[in-house]
């Protein structure tokens, strides 16, 4: 009787049902987002949005999902602000890492060609640090590496 467990049968049936439901919810969510983008996030003044919400409710879509879709379509979701702040920090981190890598390549591996790129990456980092979400990172960098010390590192020439 191997391969005939009841749990295995239930698991496969539930997995198939969940996949169908997820696909349906994705379609309903897209319809809500499009309706909110085109006519605004107020269902009272947007007939297409109102119809999309009613259809989603008829398929037992959770209210949270509906509200998130409306907010995303209308451009008022809180996730957009959090994403913008996170994205702002990632650029600065990336440029700081590149400066470190180029410095290491020049100093440790004797590849001074990378030193020519460092001033441009410093400019990009300075521009990244101008964003308000990066104020803590800017303060940390100013404390540990004052502006006067930033630039191309001095590399001893190989003799």
Features:
Arc Repressor Mutant, subunit A, mainly alpha, 2 domains, 159 residues, elongated
Summarize the structure.
By secondary structure, the chain is mainly α. It folds into two domains: 70 residues, Integrase, N-terminal zinc-binding domain (Arc Repressor Mutant, subunit A), CATH 1.10.10.200; 71 residues.
Rg over alpha carbons: 27 Å
Q: Largest sheet, if any? A: none
The residue fraction in helices comes out at 55-70%
Order of helices and strands: HHHHHH
Question: How is this structure best described in words?
Answer:
The chain has 2 domains: 7-76, Integrase, N-terminal zinc-binding domain (Arc Repressor Mutant, subunit A, Orthogonal Bundle), CATH 1.10.10; 79-149. Helix content is 69%, strand content 0%. It has 6 helices and no strands. α1 (6-39) packs antiparallel against α2 (47-58), α1 packs parallel to α3 (63-74) and α4 (78-107) packs antiparallel against α5. The chain is elongated, with a radius of gyration of 27 Å.
List the topology elements.
Blueprint: H1 6-39, H2 47-58, H3 63-74, H4 78-107, H5 118-129, H6 135-144
Helix pairs in contact: 1-2, 1-3, 4-5
């Amino acid at each position: 009787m191997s391969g005939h467990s009841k749990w295995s049968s239930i698991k496969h049936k539930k997995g198939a049902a969940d996949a169908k439901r997820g696909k349906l919810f994705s379609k309903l969510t897209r319809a809500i987002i499009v309706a909110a983008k085109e006519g605004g996030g107020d269902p009272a003044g947007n007939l297409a949005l109102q119809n999309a919400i009613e259809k989603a409710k008829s398929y037992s879509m959770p209210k949270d999902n509906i509200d998130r879709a409306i907010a995303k379509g209308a451009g008022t979701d809180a996730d957009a602000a959090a994403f913008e702040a996170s994205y702002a920090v990632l650029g600065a981190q990336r440029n700081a890492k590149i400066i470190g890598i180029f410095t290491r390549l020049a100093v440790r591996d004797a590849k001074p060609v990378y030193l020519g790129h460092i001033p441009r990456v410093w400019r990009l980092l300075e521009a990244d640090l101008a964003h308000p979400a990066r104020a803590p990172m800017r303060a940390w960098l100013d404390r540990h590496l004052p502006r006067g010390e930033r630039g191309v590192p001095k590399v001893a020439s190989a003799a």
